[in-house]
Hints:
Radius of gyration: 20 Å
Structural class: mainly alpha
Shape: globular
Order of helices and strands: HHHHHHHHHHHHHHH
Strand content: under 5%
Distance between the termini: 25 Å
Helix content: over 70%
Largest sheet: none
Amino acid sequence: MSHPPSECDLQPAGLQVILEEPFRVFFPLGIVACLPGVWPWVAFRMGWTDSFSGIGHGLLQIQGFEMAFAVGFLMTVLPRFLETRPTRLWELVIGWLLCTAGVVALAAGSLRLGEGLFLALAVHMSIFGLRRLHGRGDDPPPFFAFLPIGFISAISGAALILWPIPGYPRLGENLVEQGMLLAFVLGIGSHLGPRLLYGNRTDPETTTPAAHRRLLVLAGVGLLLLASFPLEVGVHGTVGRVLRAAIVSGYLFGVLRVYQSPIRPLIQPHLLRLSLWSLCAGLWLAVLLPGYSLAALHLTFISGFGLMTIVIGTRVVTGHCDAEALWDDNRLIAAAPAGLILLSLPVRLAANVAPQFYFECLAAAGALWLAGVVLWGVLFIPRLGPAHITPD
């Protein structure tokens, strides 16, 4: 018996591919979005501009570069995990426009408009997730408990940047720049980490009582992670930072076991493991040496979030866009973008220990970062067209 065609079946073939894999339009946006966050350091040192502003630097990197990759990934995997309908065209267009407009606003120096647009994007993605959850064909895996924590961090953080609470300095920025991504790392890392590092492709239990109990436990862990931020800025800084570092490192080492070496002798899984270690190292450095908190943040951001995003982005493209050989053949060119980003870390840290060369270090680190990101774009953006599909 024939069945009526679904909405997805009625779409043109190329559009159908993009709706099933929205990362194809969000990853290029992420590459472009990170440029205005780093380029001003290079331009100022080269004498091409007379001044610079670092106010939007961190927010541009997180709300542009990182968020575009996160949105593209989540719009791709959430419908698959929950066995429900793929992204609708209007959902993709609204998400892409909000992300793009937010980056443009921040790059133009309009902080309030940029945060308002980011707040709208976080709400839009939360509704996207709730719609998929409501129409699910399967329960979410336990580690999905961290994803709502990430969106709560994004929404509350953006709101607090717009309407700060007296006595809680930088709470909004910390929730956006750290809380959101840490929650996403624990959630997405629970899926990708075992697969990329240790070849574990077993699908997690989702419908058993044990799976439901684990989901509740992980939701509690996520709430503790969220609580560490107001605790840090409003009660006791060290206690909040220790709680956050303990939760993240305890989960990555105790649950994901990132102390184990990857089973395959490939460059990219080792870089992914290094990014997870760097994440923990940056959080603990902020505890042990609070005077170097800015250096600790860059350790967390550059060789943690940044390196991780590039490696995972590489795996998504090579796995979905018929470029598996770039990953499996251990080609150095595919790892070169991550290598350049990693090289930018010691140069950026040198700015904190050699302040007489502060702007030189910022410019050099920015140039290395930009070289890595642009090279990634040159290598992989041409493969994101809907004609490039990995055979089933």
